[in-house]
Design goal:
This protein has 296 residues and is mainly α. Helix content is 38%, strand content 6%. The chain folds into two domains: 47 residues, no CATH class; 163 residues, Centromere DNA-binding protein complex CBF3 subunit, domain 2 (hpI Integrase, Chain A), CATH 1.10.443.20. The strands form two sheets. A three-stranded antiparallel sheet has the order 3-4-5, with no helix packed on it. A hairpin with a 2-residue loop joins strand 3 and strand 4. The longest helix has 17 residues. It is globular and about 75 Å long.
């Protein structure tokens, strides 16, 4: 609504207010105390009536590892659903990891073109986006990516991108959209059309079914939320670094980042009953600091 009034109708981001001469109003009607109060009261009424807003469940590194392992196993044709072959899965996994690590929306990933990815070396990439939903006028900081340690290869966008580029080279595709539509023979189309969000979501859900995971709670926003939680909880990134990487404000007035870190719909990282259990077995060892305690 704010975008429609501000951009499409040219009213800008200025809050709605009375004009100086008192003859009328100026600014964006959606940015006003009246609208904010109404939306808050509407939310309270919905909660009281039993309606709960459900965000897409976050993709976890464990889920991506299951997909990675599945893609790298040898399967007989009878074991695979016929929704997509190995090339299709290579495309998807590259898009999965890029959206996951860079907190990208699906439409932002699917519209990436070759000239927006700079290959610095075998293990370094720089991804520069021309626009984002929150930065539509440019000045978007690039994502500097380095190949992750082998222990994190299942979430490494550099490795996944390299594998997908090898597929594209088979068909002499070196420019245009990176993640493009596939034909029924598991081949990327040469007419330079990106995969649509609807096609991506359908294939994402098929991928989840391959690894015996219910796709219902997941959506296209699952990667953005999951990557934020992965860097915060597993790689221990501080809040300020997360905001800088994701392009969020560090003023912490609206705390947008909290929506990505916390949701009742996500899988719990540990059982509540174990919070004060000091005799729990060690957690997975951190390959950076070497600690395996739950407080690491």
């Amino acid at each position: 609504m704010t975008y429609a009034f501000g951009r499409l109708h040219g009213l800008g981001p200025t809050p709605w207010h009375s004009s100086e001469d008192g003859a009328g109003t100026e600014g964006n009607p959606s940015v006003s105390t009246q609208v904010s109060s109404y939306m808050l009261s509407l939310r309270r009424r919905k909660v009281q009536n039993g309606e709960i807003a459900v965000s897409a469940r976050a993709v976890t590194s464990d889920l991506l590892k299951k997909v990675y392992d599945f893609n790298h196993q040898t399967h007989s044709p009878a074991d695979l659903d016929n929704w997509g072959g190995p090339r299709n899965r290579s495309l998807l996994f590259s898009a999965f990891t890029l959206a996951f690590i860079c907190f990208l929306r699906v439409d932002e990933v699917l519209k990436i073109q070759f000239h927006e990815i700079e290959i610095l070396s075998e293990d370094k990439l720089v991804v520069s986006l021309p626009f984002r939903k929150t930065d539509q006028f440019g000045d978007i900081k690039p994502f500097h990516l380095k190949a992750l340690r082998p222990e994190y290869q299942h979430v490494c966008p550099v490795r996944a991108f390299a594998a997908w580029v090898m597929v594209l080279k088979e068909f002499n595709i070196k420019e245009g959209y990176v993640f493009r539509r596939m034909d029924t023979q598991d081949r990327p189309l040469s007419n330079n059309q990106p995969m649509t969000s609807e096609q991506f979501l359908e294939r994402f859900r098929n991928t989840l079914l391959d690894v015996k995971i219910d796709p219902y709670p997941y959506g296209t926003h699952s990667f953005r939320r999951g990557g934020c939680q992965f860097l915060a909880q597993e790689l221990r990134w501080p809040l300020k670094r997360l905001c800088e990487w994701g392009g969020w404000s560090t003023e912490f007035t609206h705390l947008t980042i909290v929506k990505y870190l916390i949701s009742w719909n996500d899988e719990p990282s540990e059982d509540r009953e174990e919070f004060f259990n000091m005799d729990r077995p060690p957690a997975l060892k951190c390959w950076v600091c070497g600690r395996s305690c739950h407080c690491a």
